[in-house]
Specification:
Strand content: 5-15%
CATH superfamily of the largest domain: DD-peptidase/beta-lactamase superfamily
Largest sheet: 7 strands, antiparallel
Number of helices: 18
Number of strands: 12
Strand order of the largest sheet: 2-1-12-11-10-9-8
Radius of gyration: 28 Å
Helix content: 40-55%
CATH topology of the largest domain: Beta-lactamase
Shape: globular
Structural class: alpha+beta
Order of helices and strands: HHEEEHHHHHHHEEEHEHHEEEEEHHHHHH
């Protein structure tokens, strides 16, 4: 009897606790919360000197707030929720959705090898790349590295076969891992998927996406590639130049459209994610559910097909960030709890100085009652950037010191006396060190960010300039220093000693 009573009491307590947790996790966007989010956005825009942004909030499956902040550009028009922004890598979900529609129509199987549809597709090891499937590409499980995917960020080809050319270039690329083995985010996957869409539909990527996803009914103020609709005017991109945002706009080439070719307004993006909540784009309910399912059952953030997924005990978050040259954004929603947001900005982060990500992801943390991210870059970034500055000052100091010793005839001779080996070692070792330093600055540090120097120059011209100047100075001094040292000694050998010597 007592056991039964305790059991019933336990059920009641658990039920009450579950109800309490459920209430606590209802992310209701009350007016007070919206005002808090609005104030946060305004504060971060001012602190980071971001020219403009657009924000849309969704609660209970409906848009409850939509507003623009700032200007499309200096002396430009005010931003509104209808202003188009480049959304960068959020575009991957559009490419994935169009392909899932083809899967539902029976034109494609997710586990088809890519070579079934593009017979000439290969990497440097054809036997291995023949095993890459459509699913591998969609989930970033092909084996392509992040660096391989960022090689042609400046792709400017407008030719109809631009995607063919970009995919053929991958024939010289070595896969980092075997297909299906590991996740590694790489734009190269979606470059190939963009071409796959064109092959399967026998049409341009632009026409396919605008007829299947970016339709006039769903997204009237959005488009693919260079199809501007002048009313409202699109936002102008900005890059930081030593903490100051400078306008910059580079036309995007067709080869990268599958990975980042969409320009959309915040309102249109909100309608797009509402369609995911309701699974009603192009009649592909099954496909959309598959996109929002992790590739494998594992804890932590997972990548589905075109979206990241974070699983919690009673709901999941579906999200993606986007960073184009001059733009940065975040899109996040819960198809279970029916809340979400879109935040688009017309400036992209700069390593170690300006952290636009603290704004675009901070809204999501506010909605979920989590601590806000620091507006300043993390200590590692700042320390790394500071070290690069110190390297440059160190190099300049060494060069000036060397010149002063030459002028004062105070350089020690090389290769004379009992310790001639050590003397030669002192001649060579600085050059070895400087060459290694140049490698770190020009190659290693950019690759740590998953990008070649060419991509760093496009997104962060100030950081790239600093790396190039420091790295080039180190390499040049590594070559010039020993030559000058030897010439100086030979010149001194021909000068008769003075009485003071």
């Amino acid at each position: 009897m007592h056991t039964t009573w305790r059991y019933l009491v336990g059920i009641v307590l658990v039920t009450m606790l579950h109800s309490t947790v459920a209430v606590a996790q209802q992310y209701n966007l009350a007016p007070e919360k919206i005002s808090e989010i609005e104030a946060f956005v305004e504060e971060r825009l001012q602190a980071l000197e971001i020219p403009g942004a657009a924000l849309v909030l969704i609660d209970n499956g409906e848009i409850v707030y939509a507003r623009g902040f700032g200007l499309t550009q200096k002396n430009g028009s005010p931003v509104s929720e209808k202003t188009p922004f480049k959304v960068g890598s959020v575009s991957k979900s559009f490419t994935a959705l169009a392909l899932m529609q083809l899967v539902d129509e029976g034109k494609l199987n997710l586990d088809d090898p890519v070579v079934r549809h593009i017979p000439w597709f290969q990497t440097s090891n054809k036997e291995v790349s023949d095993k890459i499937t459509v699913r591998h590409l969609l989930a970033h499980r092909s084996g392509f590295s992040t660096v391989a995917g960022n090689r042609n960020q400046d792709g400017g080809s407008n030719l109809p076969d631009a995607m063919v050319s970009a995919t053929r270039e991958l024939s010289s690329v070595a896969l980092k891992t075997l297909p299906g083995e590991h996740y590694e985010y790489s734009n190269a996957n979606y470059h190939v998927l963009g071409l796959l869409l064109e092959v399967l539909e026998d049409d341009s990527f632009e026409n396919i996406i605008e007829s299947r996803v970016v339709t006039a009914d769903l997204m009237p103020n959005s488009y693919v590639w260079t199809r501007p609709r002048m009313d409202p005017a699109p936002a102008q991109g900005h890059r930081y130049w030593f903490t100051q945002p400078i306008p910059f706009e580079m036309p995007r080439g067709r080869e990268t459209l599958g990975a980042g070719g969409i320009t959309a307004s915040a309102e249109d993006m909100a309608n797009y994610i509402l369609a995911y909540m309701n699974s009603d784009i192009g009649g592909t309910h099954t496909g959309m559910m598959t996109m929002m399912t992790p590739y494998e059952d594992a804890p932590g953030d997972q990548y589905g097909l075109g979206w990241y997924i974070t699983d919690y005990p009673d709901y999941r978050l579906v999200w993606h960030g986007g960073q184009s040259i001059g733009f940065e954004c975040a899109v996040l929603f819960s198809p279970d709890k029916k809340f979400g947001y879109v935040l688009l900005t017309n400036t992209n982060s700069s390593f170690g100085t300006r952290k636009v990500g603290s704004l675009v992801w901070g809204v999501g943390r506010l909605i979920r009652n989590l601590p806000l991210p620091d507006k300043a870059p993390n200590l590692t970034e700042r320390a790394t950037l500071g070290a690069v500055y110190l390297v440059l000052f160190f190099l300049l100091f060494q060069i000036v010191s060397f010149v002063r010793k030459v002028i004062g005839a105070r350089l020690e001779p090389v290769g004379k006396g009992k310790n001639s080996f050590l003397s030669y070692l002192r001649l060579i070792m600085p050059s070895i060190f400087l060459t290694g330093l140049a490698y770190i600055l020009l190659i290693f540090l950019p690759s740590m960010n998953g990008a070649p120097m060419s991509a760093v120059s496009l997104f962060m011209p100030d950081v790239a300039l600093l790396l190039k100047v420091s790295g080039t100075t180190a390499l040049a001094w590594a070559l010039v220093r020993p030559v000058l040292r030897v010439r100086y000694q030979r010149a001194r050998a021909t000068v008769p000693p003075t009485d003071s010597e």
